[in-house]
Amino acid sequence: MRLPRSRGLRAVWGFLAVLGPGVITGAAGDDAGGVATYASVGAQYGYTLLWIMGPITVALIIVQLQVARMAVVTGKGFAELIREEFGVRWTAVAMVVLIVANGTVTIAEFAGIAAAGELFGIPRPISVPLMAVVVWLIVVRASYTVAEKIFILLSTALLTYVGAAILAQPDWKEVGVALVTPSFQFDPGYLATFVALVGTTITPYMLFYLQSSLTDKGVDVTDYPRERTDVIVGSLLTTIIAVFIVVSTAATLHVNGVVIDTAEDAARALEPLAGPYAFLLFGLGLFGASMLAASVLPLSTAYAVCGAFGWERGVSRSWSEAPIFNTLYTALIAIGAAFVLIPGLPLIQVIVATQFLNGVLLPVVLIFVLKLVNDHELMGDYTNNRLFNVLSYATTGVLVLLTVALLAFSAFGIG
Predict the structure, then answer these.
(1) 12 occurs within a structural domain
(2) Number of folded domains that form the chain
(3) pLDDT of 33 higher than 60
(4) Domain-embedded: residue 10
(5) Residue at 91 is within a domain
(6) Alpha-carbon radius of gyration of the chain
(7) Which of 60-74, 137-151, 210-224, 228-242 has the lowest average pLDDT?
(8) Which of 3, 8, 71, 271 has its CA 20 to 30 A from that of 402?
(9) In this structure, are residues 36 and 266 in contact, taking their beta carbons and an 8 Å threshold?
(10) Is 90 exceeded by the pLDDT of residue 67?
(11) Is 90 exceeded by the pLDDT of residue 396?
């Protein structure tokens, strides 16, 4: 039976009301570096790596659900729990690495903003400072509710990659087969790409941001079922968009033997092969993704550092109420934007260095998650059940091995 219009609208608005930190966190994962990685995977390997997006989706959901559960049960940020349970020394090490890693990734996001602007004829000295001010205003001058709505709006820009993939006219039957058919090549380059694909989808800053934003929003344990839906939808959005990015470049660049290094390269290469609209959609997606991540990365860092050391934090807090939170957020944006304006800055090397730093932090973060979420004194009846623990330990083990492999490849110059 067809629902009455009013009931149907209520159902839609009810679903949209659920969306929030989980969707924002997931969408921020498809940032400039992620777009470049997915685009290069499609250009270099076609559809052959699409099958890994299924297991990555499961892993992302498992990891983020644990973090969300800790947030609603304890009412505390991830870094705050690390300090309380493991001490200041471990916390200080984690925060130093997080600041450096997130700072360099923020540079990459402003590089994405600059690249998107240049695709549409806007010079870097205009687009970068202007968007840096916009990003700053979103958090420093807006309430949490307003900031969340803006972040969700920016997330919708990722849907442009769906249009770009459709305009690329792929063989959808071939895409479907690749999604469910595991394949592997035993060469260093392929394995390094495989590891990078996982690493760019599940990152430490996503976990810090998700838990802190939930506590800032005031979500409690009674709201967990709704937040669980939010996290699952956000994780699905992350990987579905990644699939469409891979498809758009596989169907055009791979079949024509075009090699790319950046998301900007992918957008420019799409135009003669898939038409100007594909170029336009890809460029808009790059801009939206970079703007979202340029907001979320500094925000997650400020949340984590202030939570770790007990300083006041929160989007809705004024400068006088949370001076360190607002100063750190402002400084990361200013540094990220300023670096991009340096002539001849080797951005590719900056991104490679970021992979090292995130690779060092990710295994530690995942182990912290498992230790905390299974602490009965901390979580009470909301610790992992046996099935979830099996999945969680397996996911963590695989991710740790892949991260170690990526670090080893990078250290020895393989791939």
Answers:
(1) no
(2) 1
(3) yes
(4) no
(5) yes
(6) 20
(7) 137-151
(8) 71
(9) yes
(10) yes
(11) no
The residue type found at 164 is A
- Residue 321's pLDDT is 87
Could you tell me the CATH number of the domain that includes residue 151?
1.20.1740.10
Instruction: Count CA within 13 A, CB hemisphere, residue 1.
Output: 3
pLDDT digits (tens, 9 = 90+) for 194-203: 777 877 788 8
SS3 label, residue 315? coil
Q: Residues 6 or more apart from 260 whose CB is under 8 A from it?
A: 39, 40, 43, 249, 253, 266, 269
Percentage helix, strand, coil, to 5, in the chain?
Answer: 80, 0, 20
Confidence of residue 12 (pLDDT cuts 50, 70, 90): very low
Q: Are the CB atoms for 119 and 283 separated by under 8 Å?
A: yes
- Chain centroid to Cα 145, Å, comes to 21
And the tokens for 159?
Answer: 């849907």
Predicted local distance difference test score (pLDDT) of residue 1: 42
Q: Name residue, tokens 């997650």.
A: 300
Residue 213 CB-density burial (10 A; 0-12 exposed, 13-18 middle, 19+ buried): buried
Sequence-distant (6+) residues with CB within 8 A of 185 are 48, 191
User: Taking a C-beta distance cutoff of 8 angstroms, is the pair 140, 372 a contact?
Assistant: no
The encoded tokens of residue 179 equal 């999604």
Q: What is the pTM of this model?
A: 0.85
Which one, of 3, 67, 16, 45, lies nearest residue 384 by Cα?
67
Tokens of 31: 């940032």
Q: Of 310-319, 332-341, 348-357, give the lowest mean pLDDT range.
A: 348-357
Largest CA distance in the chain: 63
* CB 348, CB 33: distance < 8 Å: no
**How do residues 278-313 score in pLDDT, each as one tens digit?**
888 888 888 988 898 898 889 889 988 988 888 888
The answer to whether position 166 is within a domain reads yes
Contact call for residues 165 and 246 (beta carbons, < 8 A)? no
Amino acid at 96: V
- Torsion sign over Cα 34, 38, 40, 45: positive
Residue type, 56: I
Q: List helix spans (H) across 46-121.
A: 53-74, 78-86, 88-119
Place of tokens 């932090």: 361
Domain that holds residue 139: 29-411
